[in-house]
Each structure stands twice: as structure tokens, then as C-alpha cells.
Here is the input.
Amino acid sequence: MNRRLPAKRGFTLVEVVIGMAILTGITLAMASTFLVASKSLSNEARIIAADTAISHASFSLTRDLASATTPPTGTVAAASTLTLSYGSPAVTVVYSIDASQALVRTVNGSAEVAARGITSVVITAAGCYTTAIIQPSATGASAVTLNVGNRPGGCL
Here is the structure.
């Protein structure tokens, strides 16, 4: 009697190689999509951080510059400070940037962080207006210019 061997079922080596090539192509396409999305989210997070830093810095700077007895000028950076005063009795405010790139506002000897993620603040005065240019430390973030009128009654 002739016995028939059962037919072997399965994939040939060629079919497996073709399947793996297709799977690799799909995996690479998905990985590149996730990489692009991750970079976009990272850039967006940096922009949000820079906007937040500038918002916090502009709040205290605007208030202090508008109230200053004499319009201050100078640069606040890692190695320099800016001092201004206002009010009666006199309030002395010193701005500095610490090693962690935080804008520190010291009022009559009491320090507080006004904003985080600031590289420098350049302050100039002309007439009745003070201009502050705030440079955030986030990569790709652009500087913001604040124009502050420092005479409540207007320019005389």
C-alpha cells in the first residue's frame, strides 16, 4: 500500500523574508511619525515655557519701572544687577539673574523669583519711557520688548 505523507503546511523562507521586509517598512514609517510628533511637542513646550517666563517677568518689571523715581538703565544678566527705587518710604528693588537662569527680584533685602528661564533683561530710558527687552532662555524663543511709561501724569 502506498501511504501518502500529509502535506506540510507553513511559510517558505521567501515568504518570511517578504513579510519581515513589509513589517520593517511599516515600523520605520510609524517611528518617523512618532519622532516628528515628539519634536513638535518638545518645541511647543519650550515656547510655552518662554511665554510663561516673559509673562511673569513683565508683570513685576512693568510695575517697578512705571513706579521708579528715576528711570533706570542697564543690563540684568548673570554677572550684573539693576537697582531702582520708588515710593515713600523708599522701596529699593534689585533685579539679578542667578545660576539657574531665574530672574530674582529683591525688595528691601527680601529675595523672590520673579520669573524662571530668563537669560537677560536690557533696560534703557528715553524721556518719559523705559524700554525693557527680555530674553528668555528657551531655545528658539525670541526676545520681547516692553515699553513702559514711567510718569503717571504723562510726559512734561
In short: The first strand starts at residue 74 and ends at 76.
